[in-house]
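Work through this protein:
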Amino acid sequence: MASIWNSDLYFVIFLLLGILLPVSSLWVLGPRLRPHKPSQAKQSSYESGVEPFGDAHVRYHARYYLFALLFVVFDVETVFFYPWAVASHQLGVFGLIEAVLFILFLAVGLIYAWRKKVLEWN
């Protein structure tokens, strides 16, 4: 017969200690250990060595987001070629046909995006 002391209680104790000890030590010791010497230079914003100007909230054109999304989609799709390349010898003609169909689907998506002028920066 398994005792509660052997499994569940130890798990709860270690879980609580694993959370409470780091949090409490950072809360108690953190302000005493870290340096705290505020100055005007430390309080100012820093942007690549240049004083920032203008508003920080800039609206970007939606086309940039669409371009980034297309990049991510086509970049992730290339990851699917690695398993096919490893197993291409075992898959034979069926694997080749599937890979060609996959490339055709990607090409159709690229042609659609090109015709909708999504890939233009203007």
About this structure: The chain is about 70% helix and 0% strand.
